[in-house]
């Protein structure tokens, strides 16, 4: 009954309104698909499993200004006192705090320097045998190191010879999965891997190549500024945290306690920027979608008002109301499809640019497809009201207006 | 073929009620050519719109080819308009974004006529109005008289038995007006019934039957099958 050809011909003869709409649809598709992809990427990033009970762990720094105290002895004493607090699961002095954005990393190799060998960058934590339990991460193979294996670094003559490593690191160094018990090297120092840890995020959540790769080295090498990590029983963290400062000062008071913070807060600070960016993107998308919907609605309304007399004439010539509705829906769909074709190309191009210049991962084409379908559905929704209005234009308009 | 009994039409606006037609009675026989005249605002267009089912009427009875129009729903009226009635408007009402061929095609598409048959009819009608060579032109590339001839071709394409024209020459100079009139006379000779509203007394005189609408009522100057159809006399 209604064919597409005359609609296309008519569109080609008066393009302006249609082209505006088409461009709007194209831009929306290009931006929304990329933004949605980035948002999802950010959500995955923010919600990535860390391996920690973040809400039960806290950290604090100790800045010692008093002299004449044996730091190592004091630390062992502090650890003991904290561990005895009711509600505490375990506590330890540790060289870096996970999820905090600050830590150390180095290369781990299959052979000592200067031999040529595979080398993988990973973060490392120096702590004692309580580290594993305080972090609360899972040992999936092998064993923890023992108290005897912990090197207490008084004179820099000794270096540990065992370590724990995460599965992600071991999988990379030993793709065959036979890394347990093997020796890896930092520089020329050998470390035999006695235990493998499942999921354990390092200090950094971003850098894809090392965020899951960590090594725990049994060593105590404290400086005047050192930090403690404490894990409590569920729900008792706040109560424990309030006691820390007094507890520490009771045993030695020529020092200050700083940055007494929950691990979840540490992580939130670290990802605050990403969260902000994600929220901005969500707002951007919402505004764009709203503007497009209004644009489609407005342009269709405009197109219809412009053609009131024509619609009346068509009705006078025998068009049923349904034919008028169909006309506008088909016309809108044609514009929309053309806009989507352009928009999909734009989305792919934009994705490539973002990947090239802003280290955004490669755009998944699913996002483009789903966005295209959603934009199409939205344009259908936007046109249906104005089209119905058009169908209700009285045929007598044909004779009543000049 | 067209029979109106006591048709009245009231326009209700916020402040006033306008009785555009009052107890309007008319009989039109197959093959007639009727010119409708009357002062401005007397109800001529209203009458034509009701005859063409473009507007509902307030009361009375209207039979078109024996069909009681008052009982039809919107789709049925649209279909009936498409099949039986050809409209010619003062402002031509060609669709500006469609070329002449596509303009003439519009009512044929609504009737669901096949492409080959559409082509045959469009070419024939454009031929009849002398514009076959300009089928690909857009309306704005034509003079007013030519545009009105396209509109007539469009009205003819569906082979309607009934042509309604509201001041078809109102926007044309007298030469073009005469050409259009000649075309309508030709169409009438070919068998179509024509009702034409006009302000042009000269053109009206050329029509075999003249009726006048005054204040929403009919004054017929011709004796109709021996019975005067007079409500308000001259
Ligand atoms: N949609 C409407 N709403 C209200 N009043 C209307 C409407 N259409 C027409 N009228 C009124 O109905 C009366 C008849 O109008 P109509 O258009 O039929 O006159 P006409 O004889 O065609 O006049 P003209 O020669 O100027 O075209 C007029 O008084 C007009 O103002
Ligand atoms: Mg009028």
Overall description:
The complex is a heterodimer of chains A (402) and B (234). Chain A has 402 residues and is of the alpha+beta class. Chain A has eleven helices and twelve strands. Chain A has helices at 4-13, 16-46, 71-84, 131-135, 167-173, 237-251, 263-306, 308-316, 321-358, 365-391, 397-400, and strands at residues 57-64, 88-94, 104-109, 119-127, 139-142, 151-152, 162-166, 183-186, 189-197, 214-220, 225-232, 255-262. In chain A, strands 3, 4, 5, 6, 7, 8, 9 and 10 form an eight-stranded mixed β-sheet that branches. The longest helix of chain A is centred in the C-terminal third of the chain and has 44 residues, at 263-306. Chain A starts with a helix and ends with a helix. With 234 residues, chain B is of the alpha/beta class. Chain B has one domain (29-56, 67-228): P-loop containing nucleotide triphosphate hydrolases (Rossmann fold, 3-Layer(aba) Sandwich). Chain B contains seven helices and twelve strands. Chain B has helices at residues 44-51, 74-84, 100-111, 115-128, 144-157, 174-189, 201-206; strands spanning 2-12, 17-28, 33-37, 59-64, 67-68, 85-88, 162-166, 193-197, 209-214, 217-220, 223-224, 227-228. In chain B, the strands form three sheets. In chain B, strands 6-7-8-3-9-10 form a six-stranded mixed β-sheet, with helices on both faces. In chain B, helix 3 (100-111) packs across helix 4 and helix 3 (100-111) packs parallel to helix 5 (144-157). The two termini of chain B are 26 Å apart. The model of chain B is unreliable at 223-234 (pLDDT under 50). The chains are: A alpha+beta (402), B alpha/beta (234). Chain A binds chain B through residues 1-3, 6, 9-11, 13-14, 309-310, 313-323, 394-396, 398-402, and chain B through 45, 48-49, 52-55, 74-75, 78-79, 81-83, 87, 89-91, 93, 95-99, 102, 105-107, 109-112, 138, 154, 158, 166. The complex binds adenosine-5'-triphosphate and magnesium ion. Adenosine-5'-triphosphate (ATP) is lined by residues 11, 13, 18, 20, 38, 40-46 of chain B. Adenosine-5'-triphosphate (ATP) binds next to strand 2 and helix 1 of chain B. Chain B: Belongs to the ABC transporter superfamily. Macrolide exporter (TC 3.A.1.122) family. Chain B: Residues 2-234 form the ABC transporter domain. Chain B: GO terms for molecular function: ATP binding; ATP hydrolysis activity; transmembrane transporter activity. Chain B: Keywords: ATP-binding, Nucleotide-binding, Transport. Chain B: This is ABC transporter ATP-binding protein.
């Amino acid at each position: 009954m209604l064919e597409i050809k005359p609609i296309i011909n008519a569109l080609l003869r008066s393009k302006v309104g249609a082209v505006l709409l088409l461009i709007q649809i194209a831009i929306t598709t290009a931006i929304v698909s990329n933004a949605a992809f980035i948002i999802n990427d950010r959500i995955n990033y923010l919600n990535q499993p860390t391996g920690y009970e973040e809400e039960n762990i806290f950290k604090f720094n100790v800045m010692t200004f008093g002299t004449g105290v044996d730091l190592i002895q004091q630390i062992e004493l502090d650890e003991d006192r904290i561990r005895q607090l009711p509600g505490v699961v375990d506590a330890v002095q540790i060289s870096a705090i996970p999820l905090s954005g600050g830590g150390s990393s180095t290369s781990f190799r299959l052979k000592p320097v200067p031999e040529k060998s595979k080398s993988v960058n990973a973060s490392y934590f120096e702590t004692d045998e309580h580290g594993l339990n305080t972090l609360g991460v899972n040992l999936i193979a092998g064993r923890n190191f023992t108290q005897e294996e912990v090197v207490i670094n008084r004179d820099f003559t000794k270096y540990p010879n065992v370590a724990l490593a995460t599965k992600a690191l071991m999988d990379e160094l030993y793709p065959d999965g036979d890394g347990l018990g093997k020796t890896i090297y930092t520089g020329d120092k050998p470390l035999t891997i006695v235990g493998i840890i499942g999921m354990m995020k390092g200090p950094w959540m971003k850098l894809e190549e090392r965020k899951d790769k960590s090594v725990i080295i049994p060593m105590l090498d404290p400086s005047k500024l050192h930090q403690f990590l404490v894990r409590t029983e569920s729900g008792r963290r706040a109560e424990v945290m309030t006691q820390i400062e007094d507890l520490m000062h009771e045993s030695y008071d020529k020092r200050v306690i700083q940055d007494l913070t929950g691990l979840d807060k540490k992580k939130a600070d670290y990802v605050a920027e990403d969260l902000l960016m994600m929220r901005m993107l969500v707002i951007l998308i919402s505004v764009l979608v709203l503007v497009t919907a209004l644009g489609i609605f407005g342009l269709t309304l405009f197109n219809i008002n412009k053609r009131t007399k024509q619609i009346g004439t068509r009705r006078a010539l025998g068009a049923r109301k349904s034919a008028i509705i169909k006309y506008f829906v088909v016309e809108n769909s044609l514009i929309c499809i053309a806009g989507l074709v352009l928009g999909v190309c734009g989305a792919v191009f934009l994705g490539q640019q973002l990947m090239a210049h802003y280290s955004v991962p490669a755009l998944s084409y699913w996002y483009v497809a789903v966005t295209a379908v959603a934009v199409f559905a939205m344009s259908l929704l936007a046109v249906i009201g104005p089209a119905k209005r058009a169908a209700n234009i009285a045929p007598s308009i044909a004779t009543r207006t000049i | 073929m067209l029979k109106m009994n006591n048709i009245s039409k009231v326009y209700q606006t916020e402040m006033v009620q306008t009785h555009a037609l009052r107890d309007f009675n008319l009989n039109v026989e197959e093959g007639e050519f009727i010119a409708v005249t009357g002062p401005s605002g007397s109800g001529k267009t209203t009458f034509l719109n009701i005859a063409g089912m473009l507007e509902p009427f307030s009361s009375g009875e209207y039979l078109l080819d024996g069909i009681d129009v008052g009982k039809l729903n919107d789709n049925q009226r649209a279909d009936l308009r498409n099949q039986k009635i050809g409209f010619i408007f003062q402002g031509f009402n060609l669709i500006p974004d469609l070329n002449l061929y596509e303009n003439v095609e519009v009512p044929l598409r609504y009737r669901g006529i096949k492409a080959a048959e559409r082509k045959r009819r469009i070419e024939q009608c454009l031929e009849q109005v002398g514009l076959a060579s300009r089928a690909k032109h857009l309306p704005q590339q034509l003079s007013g008289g030519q545009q009105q001839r396209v509109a007539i071709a469009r009205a003819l394409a569906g082979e309607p038995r009934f042509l309604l024209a509201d001041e078809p020459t109102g926007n044309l100079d007298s030469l073009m007006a005469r050409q259009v009139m000649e075309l309508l006379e030709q169409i009438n000779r070919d068998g179509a019934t024509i009702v034409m509203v006009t302000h042009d007394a000269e053109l009206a005189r050329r029509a075999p039957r003249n009726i006048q609408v005054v204040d929403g009522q009919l004054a017929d100057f011709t004796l109709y099958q021996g019975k005067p159809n007079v409500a308000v006399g001259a």
